[in-house]
Structures are given as structure tokens and as C-alpha cells.
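so my prof wants the structure for this chain in the C-alpha cells format not the other one, which i didnt know existed until like an hour ago. anyway here's the sequence
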Amino acid sequence: MKLYEITDIYNGVLSAIENEECTAESMEEALKTIEDDFENKVDAIACMIKGLNANINGIKAEEEALKKRRESAAKRADWLKGYLSSEMLAIGKKKVETPRNKLYFRPSVSVLIDDELALKALHPELTTVKTVVTPDKNAIKAELKKGVHINGAYLVEKQNLQIK
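here's what i got, hopefully its the right format
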């Protein structure tokens, strides 16, 4: 039987008792059985949640390990590319073509800035301003708890299930 079915039966029995369709004493054994079924089902689902959380933690650990491997491989590839580049330039080779690879230098131009603060002060017209504005939920929560009305914001009480 599914958890929602047990809940429906339990609520039906309680409703019958409240509507005096039967006595509490006569339904006591039925309620006890239903409560036992409900608790067993809840326990099984809680165990599933714990298992899933354990899997999540294992996956997170594996993600971290893979991330470290990826970053290590990227650093190694960058180092090898720099090494290859410097050695090709050292002997004056701008292009090398093999049956499996074609290597060449493509010219590019980039901007290097020695002192960003000085540049910003001397040439403000060559700078951009980035501003990120987000609501301060902690401050809003504090104000709402004081009873201050804030349009578009309100407190919502939640029930957070803890499984240990």
C-alpha cells in the first residue's frame, strides 16, 4: 500500500470518529494498525532518502576528484603548449606540419595594463562600471519581523524535515 493511501485511510477513520459514525474504542485497533503501517512506510522512505543522500555525497566527492584531474590535465596541456611554443620560436619555426598535426603561430594583439587604478584615474572615459543590485534578504527578513510592511516581500513559514 502506498503512503498516500495509508494517509487517506487514516484520515477516513478519524473523520468517521469525529462524525460519530463509530466510536473511538471500536476503531482503536484499526487506527493502531494504520499507524503502524504508516510508520513502517515513513521509515522505509526515510531510509531511501538517507541512501540517496549518501549517493549524492559520493557523487560530489567523485565530481571533486574529476575536477582536480581535469584541472591537472589542463595545466599540463598549457605547460606543454608553452614549452612547444618556446622551443619552436627558439629555432625560428613558425609552422610545423606532420601527418597527424598542423602547428602554426597566428598573430594576435592584446592589451596589457600596468596599473589599473592609475588608468582609471587618468582615463575614466575608457572604463566601464559594473553594478549588481540584489535584494538583501536578511535585512528584509529583519524588517518584516519588526512588523514593517515591504511591498512585494513577505515571510513564509516552512516546515523542514530533518532525517538523522
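also thought this was worth mentioning. The longest strand covers residues 95-97.
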